[in-house]
Queue: 4 jobs
Job 1
Amino acid sequence: MTLPKLSSVNLWLLACAVSLAAAGCHAPGKPGPGPEVPRPSQVLDFPTLYRENCAACHGENGKNGAAIALNNPVYLAIAGTANIEKITANGVPNTAMPPFAKSAGGMLTDQQIASLVQGMERKWTISVEVRLVGTTGTPTPHYAATTLGDPTRGQKAFATYCASCHGSDGSGAHLPNNLTTGSIVDPTYLALVTDQGLRSWILAGKTEQGSHDWQSYSPDHELSDQEVTDIVAWLASHRTATPGQVYKQHP
């Protein structure tokens, strides 16, 4: 039997087919033998979720960002899983913290939010039970205020426990080693932070910068729940209706 002659085009196509088969290649659009790239909603890996959604504000390793440090075990323990999941899902109104849950307009599923929070707790919670036991027996303050604060009492507590670093009036102070602290009663700053944000800073401290948590403002006195609430009330009393610089009209 005589085989039909193959044209040069057919020979080229045949050669390509043999090469593709030998290399294990697949036609365009056909899934290959390797692992498929997961859909965004299927990503549950904590490092990936944190890097893509949290690191820009809270820091690459949970610290040294513009927002509160998430690698602070005192903050994680006092806030608790339910509160952190709620904040992550729904955001914080009137701040730079957006909602991440799909149900609130974000991009993450409930499972992804749970993975984020569980990852923070696994990675950054160490010996929390020891950290939260006051040496003088003072009960751990609540994450959120449970009573009304008194600015007058708050001013006295601030002067006693906070003035050494922030100045007696909260406008800042000069510290050793040529360090200074800025004003925490500046209306522009207070317009950018909620009462709960102020409370969280007081409770957990900025440990990445060596500042205190609720237990260590004084060597022999841990801040009580009411003292924290009163200090926040005094700080919040410095808010103004129109924060920022006054606009100057030119004649």
Note: The first strand starts at residue 173 and ends at 175.
Job 2
Amino acid sequence: MKKVYVILLNYNGWIDTVECLESVFRNDYPNYQVIVVDNDSPNNSMEYLKAWAEGKLDVFANPNNPLRNLSFPPVPKPIPYIYYTREEAEKGGSPELEEELKNKMPEDITSKYPIVFIQSGGNLGFAGGNNVGIKYSLARGDSDYVLLLNNDTVVEKKFLTELMKITNIRTNVAIIGGKILYYNYPNKIWYAGGKLDLWRGSGYHLNADKKDSELYGIKEVSFVTGCLMLVDKKVFNYIGLFSEEYFLYLEDTDFCHSALQKGFKLYVNLNSKIYHKISSTVSGNQEVSPMAIYYSTRNRLYFMMRRQKKWIRKCIFLGFFGITRLCHLIQWLLERKMGNIKAMFSGIKDGYKKD
């Protein structure tokens, strides 16, 4: 049973992170260690997370939530932890101290390793924050896989066991994903496989909004979302870590593309299930912030500029600023959302500037 480092990135979301951790420590895979990287949250998240591990803090679990059983009642505490700065973590931390703490782990928790808390020292974005955790795992050199897991998720008991099954039945596997359902609509699919589209500069979710019961099994794909991404650590030696130039959005798309270019394969096991707290209505509409508009616009252009051939780049603007964005632009004009419009054009300008 190969060891897996489970990396959660936190920024001001300690309440979600605690609920996620409560579910992770219930999973039935017997060989994993949890790493929580905090991107210098201004709301004192790290101290709250330590208090939770010490058994001094519980988070309210809504008794009407159908997913409550995944994270409640609380797992036994205290859970031993070790705290590192970014510099300490990237050098591999203190293996001797971690070995001592293993003897203090509660018997009813499936992990036999202490939690690793890492303070990154700044808001490094999704790529930068996760890279800190990945560098720690690489420096330790005692595992074969790294699992990236969004902190605003809860997981089912067999989610990691199901992901790891693929490593035994498929060859040349680089990246593995699972089925991701809406937290507020647990029978509705958010992600169940993905497709990489260079012309539109993104990785697209397949089977979105279908019912959970409609899709099971193992499938080869060309895009796995960073919300739930199991990575064979040998891949980092071939393609490097996540590109920190993106900061927010498209890091996973770029990473998947690099893996495919090196001949690696990507899969999803739809028997592995987690639930994501993405804002959504039944129709799938969601409000987006100017920051989200800026980074998604900038990074899609940047991705296409990096990955497409030079002669194609001249055609990108017309293709990118197509009917979808024209509709958004008209809608925002009618709603007088000038911040959204400004964010989109700033993203277009900066996306081309990065070429």
Note: The chain is about 40% helix and 20% strand.
Job 3
Amino acid sequence: MKIKLIAALLLLIPTLALGSPDFKSAFGSRDGCFVISDLHTGKIISEYNPKRCQERLSPCSSFKIAAALMAFEKGILKDENQVVKWDGVIRDRAELNRDQTPFMWMSNSAKWVTEWITPQLGLETIQRLLKDFSYGNQDFSGGLKDAWQTTSLKISAHEQMEFVAKIWTGGLPLSPKTMELTKKIIFIKKLGKESEVFGKTGTGCLVGHDCMEHPSPMLGWFVGVLKNGKAEYAFAANATDLIPQGPPAGPRLRETVLDLLKKLKLIR
């Protein structure tokens, strides 16, 4: 009996060692969820709003992670330094109106690069790879350029977390080179002495398509991996605004998640 009790207490130690963020205050005027797991065991170590974390929503620009895997695997993108020539269309952000490398595509969230990639892949290839990835509902019927942007393709936070974990553990039926190149281009920054964060945001309008120009409630995503030496974690978060808010929802949520990771004492 004593041995069983000690074993049970030992299992609780990692959870007890975590901080206790005030998730409700962190999300503020947003209905959101957050889930994080040990990348190697799959064990969930913290979760907020689990019902919402199981709900499938449009991935918005977080889909670019999947698009990058597809593009590298099929040779549309050769490496992280390839230059994708600007199409000449003037868009609302200056950083979009120039040539892009794969890393810039991610960091600038250049939708036009995704729109350049998906027609080259073709619907049949995309649907097959979405199935191989177990990527949400795998429904690309919304069109090669818009299925992932608040139309047909939907995925839950749990599925997003499991998807990014597979990139790090080699759990996808893709070449090691493809997965290594994708990791490189979704690197965000170093935090603390040992921590590195990888991931991708996503922002979508809940109504219409002009919420960036005329503030209105948005959907935001932040999906990725946190590395602390040998310790690695996969996480996913999404949130919908309850009131109109100005800055894009994805970057706002990224800052919220990074703060939560600090409060969970996972950043060193």
Note: Residues 1-17 have pLDDT under 50 and may be disordered.
Job 4
Amino acid sequence: MAVDLITLDNGILYEGKWGEILDAYVSETIKQNELLEDHKQYKALLDYTDTTLLNPDQKFSSRTPNGGLKGITETGIKTNREFNFGPKKGLSQREIWEKFDMSYLMTQWAKKAQNLKGAPEGVQAELVQISDQARDLVQGYDITFAEEMVKNLTLGFSVTAAEGPGAASARDWLSLFNASHELKDGSTFTNVVSGAAYTDVATGQAQLQVALDALKTMKFDNGKKIRQPKGEAYKLYCSRVKETFWLEVINEGSDKAGTGNNSAKKNTFSFKNNLVEVVVLDLLGDTDTDGNTIGTDSMFFVTNPKAVRDMKAFRSASLYSARVKTFENDETDVMSTSIRAIIWVGAYDAEFCVTGGTWIA
């Protein structure tokens, strides 16, 4: 029996009503969870927080954690708690949609047949092709979502958008990576590592230490130091091209490869008493769907993963689940299958828990 609208086990919605043979084949193809590996992987690697969107125009505000509780005064009156919420920052939704068409012969067979018995050879061959095409649509959605997550970092060196990747921080309206981030008391701090281009390991060690020191000395507007990871490694993100370089940097400055449960992990090291994990972002330096390069192979980023999670510094969401639909095109009289989704990523107070640089030759 043909389906109307079903939610598959990977959260994708599928809508079809054009016959059992086609609907069952497409839905069975796209329900496989391994189709969504890319954005799930990057969500975990970059410590993104899933966010529920209530409406398309929703805005979020940052919040500085407060201090302890004040004592009761002689009057016995309790002090009202002060909450330090920052300015509200909107979200940038990106709507993506693509489709593929089937042949007129396949369209007619799908409308009438329940199985492939007696089907022309061309129909059987096209049905296999439809499976590949359906998978490709879902993988395209998956890849685009992952690309947006990485762009939240790579586009952070200048303000190029009002919302989403490349947007300014709502706190001081400066780029994510900036040497003059402002606090309410007028003081400034930096989360960008700069310097002349180089490839030698010794300078790499010095600059990595600069990045770690910046993370450790950051404070909120209320003067409280940002909590650092305990028993968890700082994350150093780099491209596949620069992985060997960064492993050499950390190995050279390590007294041992990890500690405790981390001792067997190849990419986790104790770098000058700082536990650091090298995380490769394969999309870094790649070309995206629009033909633009995602950052450069030379970019690197260091995060305090505990703070990223606690502050929900990187957020992602879908206004609705990706929707795959099979329909008849009135203009061509053939069946089409499309995928449509609205995705969103954003950075909120991420300047307090991530440093970045682009200075490797």
Note: The longest helix spans residues 121-154.
